[in-house]
Write a structure and sequence with these properties.
By secondary structure, the chain is α/β, with parallel strands linked by helices. Helix content is about 50%, strand content about 10%. The protein folds into two domains: about 35-115, no CATH class; about 130-275 and about 310-464, 3-Layer(aba) Sandwich (Aminopeptidase), CATH 3.40.630.40. The strands form three sheets. Strands 7-4-8-12-9-11-10 form a seven-stranded mixed β-sheet, with helices on both faces. Strands 1-2-3 form a three-stranded antiparallel β-sheet. The chain has a two-stranded antiparallel sheet with strand order 5-6.
């Protein structure tokens, strides 16, 4: 298995080198997008086209769902910059193996010209650059964070409890980053700027009014299986409903408002936390000590045990990770929307640009936080380069729904006790120093990316 993984990494690296040398970039991108052999049944690369199929059975039968020819790539790429999702879906469905009509090409060209940004006269380094920031998760209180399963509740060496939650860290990171970017002239949008969800209908109201209908609609459109729909409608609790809401309602909504903004760069702000393999043993030993305390009352023991069960186990490790789109797994191309985004990631430079920007972010994480890149094995992920640990193509849904250049960052381990002690200042209204450094890492990476890549693209267009 280890030999296979090393061999796979070598192949991916070779394909990436080929792409950078200007050869067929589609193959290099595809190597990072296919996380399961079944995905190959939905796509084929021809010398002058990329073809998508609705299913592996259709591919065997030669039933083409949509084919984009090489000379149509620019039109296809620009289509995502000027059309809404409904129109993109319509164009994809109708195209099949025909070519784009002259009228459609003219329409996209005209809309692209009309949407070109006005020349900036400012000397500010990020003048006119659009940046989207998505502070992950939504909790506005510790109890909400428990429901969301995104919280830290640790026991320090002296027995003191350390409590904070990730949504709050993400929001404060976004606030600092937005402030720095706007001082440099950037146009910044944030998907949420308070401790609540981005979707306009509050979850507690949505769960009562819209849950059943939403499950039926998602099943009808192949976003979820009939078996999952049945389980969801069989009297599940609010935590399971919230998980469905976040995945199928909240995330697509955030992606929709980001894509409508057409950002040059998107920052998906998160922090990491992983259990040690001995996590359950540490909880067991703490519960054992509570049981064996001869002086504690029964009610106090039950309270203490409940807290231990809710607590998060400490890790001794500490590292950083960054993620770009990739590693589609079985059943993740069952919807037409997912196949459209898959095709976009093959044809457009979005994945290449995301890798470049994410490398800058990772380098800054390592330098500013003094932490290495992860060398872990994550589920549903492909290491982009064995020579640059910490950068992965992974099937996080937001990375696939959001278009353009992006990075999903997960710097440091929240449940490392040393990190947790500092990060917990967020619960007292103070900004942890590590959060300031994380925001600075994103900011400097954006500055570098804009200077080295977006400016270069503007020069190319000006020369043409």
């Amino acid at each position: 298995m280890k030999y296979y993984m090393n061999y796979r990494n070598i192949i991916i690296l070779i394909l990436l080198i080929i792409a950078l040398l200007g050869c067929d970039r589609r193959s290099a991108r595809l190597s990072l997008l296919i996380g399961d052999p079944s995905i190959e049944g939905f796509v084929s690369l021809e010398p002058d086209a990329v073809t998508m199929y609705a299913s592996p059975a259709d591919k065997k039968a030669g039933r083409i769902e949509c084919r984009i020819y090489e000379d149509e790539y620019p039109v296809f790429i620009n289509m995502f910059k000027v059309l809404d999702n409904a129109r993109i879906n319509e164009v994809y469905r109708e195209k099949r193996q025909s070519r784009f009509t002259a009228d459609f090409i003219d329409e996209i060209k005209s809309m692209t010209e009309k949407n070109k940004p006005m020349p900036e006269n400012s000397d500010l380094p990020l003048a006119g650059i659009r940046i989207a920031i998505d502070p992950g998760h939504s909790a506005g209180s510790f109890n909400e964070a428990i429901m969301e399963s995104k919280y830290m509740w640790l026991f320090a060496r002296n027995g003191a409890q350390i409590k904070f939650y990730e949504a709050q860290l993400n929001l404060e990171t976004a606030r600092i980053l937005k402030e720095m970017l706007e001082k440099d002239g950037a146009i910044v949008m944030q998907t949420r700027d308070s401790g609540r969800q981005a979707y306009p209908v509050p979850f507690n109201i949505w769960a009562v009014r819209n849950f059943s209908q939403a499950v039926d609609e998602k099943m009808r459109d192949n976003h979820i299986s009939p078996a999952l729909a049945h389980r969801l409608l069989s009297g599940i609790g609010n935590e399971a409903k919230l998980k469905f809401f976040n995945s199928e309602i909240e995330m697509p909504y955030r992606a929709k408002i980001i894509n409508a903004f057409h950002p040059h760069v998107t920052v998906l702000v998160h922090y990491d936390a992983r259990d040690e393999e001995t996590a359950f043993r540490s909880k067991y030993l703490r519960i054992k000590d509570i049981f064996e305390d001869p002086y504690a009352q029964c009610t106090q023991k039950l309270k203490d045990i409940s807290e231990v069960l809710k607590s998060v186990s400490e890790t001794k490790r500490d590292y950083c990770t960054v993620f770009v789109p990739g590693c589609f797994l079985s059943n993740e191309l069952n919807t037409i929307e997912s196949r459209i985004e898959f095709l976009r990631l093959i044809i457009s430079p979005d994945l290449d640009n995301s890798i470049v920007y994410s490398k800058y972010v990772l380098e800054n994480f390592k330098d500013y936080l003094d932490l290495p890149g992860a060398r872990e094995s994550f589920s549903a992920s492909i290491s982009v380069s064995s020579f640059r640990p910490g950068l992965y193509a992974r099937n996080f849904r937001m990375t696939r729904l959001v278009r353009g250049t992006l990075c999903l960052g997960e710097p440091l381990q929240q449940n490392n006790i040393a990190e947790a002690a500092g990060l917990s200042q967020i619960a007292t209204g103070k900004t942890p120093e590590r959060v300031k450094l994380v925001a600075r890492a994103y900011y400097d990476a954006i500055r570098k990316y804009v200077k080295m890549h977006i400016a270069r693209e503007k020069e190319k267009k000006g020369a043409s």
